[in-house]
């Protein structure tokens, strides 16, 4: 059991930690841009000229050179675009729409009326004392409720929520693919950079090439795991917070011998993907827009969510059992 003194100490430590995370966000952004920029410079000054060598006598080498150049520029543009959008796009708050051009900010009374239309008893956040839409959670770092909150990321100095989760996931996707591509085409020149007896004809010093290669391996593995985790969450229509809440709900239901808990927002893997990226049938944008570095807004306002038929049947069964 926590004593009042110990509980107060823990709360104080949490507040200090959250304040530090909030304040250090810009430092993480500068560091991330610096590391990605260094890797990009190393790639175009060492790896690209080593792997894509020009030869006037063979048309295939010319084609592969230009194809490789276009692909490389495309990947760099996608990385920086989605990173910028993940930073600059507001994740969505309870009393604001989150993105320019979306619905205007509702009043507190209007928000209650909006939520009461879909929820019989709208919840209220215990920390910010505002109406709490479904799938919204309070961020202790930003000190506000965020729509479809996943987590607070210091690397973007922002919460990952309804309006910027798509940019965040695509940023990780392009960065991971670029890291693996860098390793695949740069491992030979990496070995050369370690052999000081071989001639080094590149402007970038050997240590930078070696460091960048190792960095690409480390980031590719670490961020690849995180990226895979987020795709699992997207396919199952969950956020990180919801995943742990759902696991707890499933265990509680099993212990009580009740009906197995069903995630009400899971519409099936394919529909979950379409909803998340807002593409394909019944959604606003065509599928190919996933591969374009352009602003894409998510479907809906992040406050009201479609639920699956299993959820409604489970609720109906629960009500029937209580009545009997």
Order of helices and strands: HHHEEEEEEHHHHH
How many helices? The count is 8
Beta strands, count: 6
Q: Enumerate the strands of the largest sheet in spatial order, edge to edge or round the barrel.
A: 1-2
Shape: elongated
Strand content: under 5%
- The N- to C-terminal Cα distance equals 40 Å
Instruction: Give the biggest sheet.
Output: 2 strands, antiparallel
The radius of gyration is 24 Å
pLDDT < 50 runs, ≥5 residues:
100-104, 312-324
Indicate the percent of residues in helices.
55-70%
* Average pLDDT figure: 84
Helix/sheet category: mainly alpha
How does this model look, in words?
With 324 residues, the chain is mostly helical. It has a domain at 8-91 and 121-213. 58% of the residues lie in helices and 5% in strands. It has helices at residues 4-51, 59-88, 108-116, 165-194, 206-235, 240-255, 269-277, 309-323, and strands spanning 123-124, 131-132, 137-139, 144-146, 151-153, 158-160. The strands form 3 sheets. Strands 1-2 form a two-stranded antiparallel sheet. Strands 3-4 form a two-stranded antiparallel ribbon. The protein has a two-stranded antiparallel sheet with strand order 5-6. The radius of gyration is 24 Å and the shape is elongated.
Write the layout of secondary structure elements.
Layout: H1 4-51, H2 59-88, H3 108-116, E1 123-124, E2 131-132, E3 137-139, E4 144-146, E5 151-153, E6 158-160, H4 165-194, H5 206-235, H6 240-255, H7 269-277, H8 309-323
Antiparallel strand pairs: 1-2, 3-4, 5-6
Helix pairs in contact: 1-4, 1-5, 2-4, 4-5
Catalytic activity: L-cysteinyl-[protein] + hexadecanoyl-CoA = S-hexadecanoyl-L-cysteinyl-[protein] + CoA
GO cellular component, one term: membrane
Membrane topology: Multi-pass membrane protein
């Amino acid at each position: 059991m926590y004593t009042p003194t110990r509980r107060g100490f823990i709360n104080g430590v949490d507040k200090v930690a959250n304040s530090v995370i909030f304040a250090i966000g810009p430092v993480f952004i500068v560091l991330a841009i610096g590391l990605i920029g260094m890797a990009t410079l190393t790639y175009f000054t060492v790896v690209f000229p080593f792997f894509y060598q020009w030869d006037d006598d063979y048309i295939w080498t010319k084609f592969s050179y230009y194809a490789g150049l276009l692909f490389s520029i495309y990947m760099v543009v996608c990385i920086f675009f989605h990173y910028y959008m993940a930073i600059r796009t507001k994740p969505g708050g309870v009393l604001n729409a989150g993105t320019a051009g979306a619905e205007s900010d509702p009043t507190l009374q209007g928000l209650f009326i909006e939520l009461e239309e879909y929820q019989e008893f709208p919840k209220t956040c215990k920390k910010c004392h505002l109406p709490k839409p479904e799938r919204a959670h309070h961020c202790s770092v930003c000190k506000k409720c965020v729509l479809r909150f996943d987590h607070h990321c210091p690397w973007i100095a922002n919460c990952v929520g309804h309006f910027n989760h798509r940019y965040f996931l695509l940023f990780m996707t392009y960065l991971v693919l670029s890291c693996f591509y860098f390793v695949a085409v740069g491992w030979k020149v990496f070995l050369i950079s370690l052999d000081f007896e071989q001639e080094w004809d590149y402007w970038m010093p050997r240590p930078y090439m070696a460091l960048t290669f190792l960095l690409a391996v480390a980031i590719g593995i670490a961020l690849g795991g995180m990226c895979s985790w987020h795709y699992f969450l997207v396919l199952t229509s969950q956020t990180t917070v919801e995943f742990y809440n759902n696991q707890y709900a499933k265990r509680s239901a099993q212990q009580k011998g009740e009906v197995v808990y069903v995630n009400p927002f899971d519409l099936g893997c394919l529909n979950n993907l379409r909803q998340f990226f807002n593409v394909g049938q019944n959604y606003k944008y065509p599928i190919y827009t996933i591969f374009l570095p352009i602003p894409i807004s998510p479907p809906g306002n992040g406050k009201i969510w479609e639920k699956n038929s299993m959820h409604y049947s489970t609720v109906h069964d629960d009500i029937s059992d209580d009545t009997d």
